[in-house]
Amino acid sequence: MHFSSIIGQARTKNLLAQLHAGGRVPHALLFLGATGSGNLALALAFAQLLECERPAEGDSCGECPACRKAAQFVHPDIHFSYPTIGTNAVSTDFIKQWRAALAENPYLDANTWLQRLGAENKQGNINKEECNAILKKLSLKAFEGRYKILLMWLPEYLGKEGNRLLKLIEEPPEQTIFLLVAENQDLILNTILSRCQMIKTDTLSDEDITAGLNQWRGVDSARARQIVLLADGDFGQALALADHPANDDARLLLDWLRKCWRGHGPELVRWADEFARLGRENQKQFLQYGLHFFRELMALIAGSLSPLRLPQEELESARNMAKVLNLDKLMLLTELFNDNIYFIERNANPKILVLDTAISINRIMKTV
Ligand SMILES: [Zn+2]
């Protein structure tokens, strides 16, 4: 991974290049930023820069043997640690899936990753066995690199097991560097936080995401505009939306809400049949679009002056919808959609789920 292929984040890239050029690389860095902002991509690019044999202009060369290995996530001195599922599981058990996931989308989010491991409703974690494996790996000499690097994605999943790593993070063996990539500071032990230098990544702008979609997936600007509205600064989600072309979620949502309002049984059953055929990813995307639509509606009702993040043709429908909904009702609908995303991710029967949801929506809409 090169810095040049990471979208936005100019400030952080400069900072990292300076740390590298000055030869003052702290032994523990914590990349903190929102899901899909690029904190993982930045850590990957920094690891590659650290191992590169011919770095130039603050970026890795991309051609030396070290870069080639780093780019395929197989460099023997760049170790990875991440949440896994199953008792006694360690990260290396899932290294194939990890490399494939990064190659597909280095703006990965935790849920997509855990579902990839077949987590269903199991919680991921970074357990005691993994901590012991890290201690062992880092006690060995570097194989060929300048540094021995441990890139840990989502130390939030360590919980109190993180205590096992404190001494190592505080006094690491020579030329050993920890790169922690986190999203939620509140879920990380203070004792770990205090031992790391924090690198906070910025929120991505709509322009960054539009440019990124073009660069990464060749998405044209009209389609990019729609995706940007839904992605809300999460480039990982933007990539997922680009990879799973929408089947006009807006039309589908408004049509469904109207039918829910009417509450005509056979009509809702037909709609549920149609929904069930969409497939899980599209169902999720539709529900996420619904959450976005409700958020914008809340802003409209609350009298937000900033322009709504909805395409022109939906604004009219949003204004009409705002007449029959209030903030309390929108809160209930948001909760309902959030629950549905959770159930869809865990393989609930989509037909039964949306039929049940339609009845709830009807009730919410009709309550005075
Ligand atoms: Zn290189």
Structure commentary:
By secondary structure, the chain is an alpha/beta fold. It is built from 17 helices and 5 strands. Strands 2-3-4-1-5 form a 5-stranded parallel beta sheet, sandwiched between helices. Helix 13 packs across helix 17 (350-366) and helix 14 (280-301) crosses helix 15 (312-324). The longest helix has 22 residues, at 280-301. The radius of gyration is 23 Å and the shape is elongated. The site of zinc ion (ZN) has 9 residues, from helix 3.
Concise description?
With 368 residues, the protein is an alpha/beta fold. It contains 17 helices and five strands. The chain has helices at residues 10-21, 39-51, 65-71, 95-104, 110-116, 128-139, 166-170, 190-193, 206-217, 221-231, 235-243, 249-262, 265-276, 280-301, 312-324, 327-345, 350-366, and strands at residues 28-32, 78-81, 148-153, 176-182, 197-200.
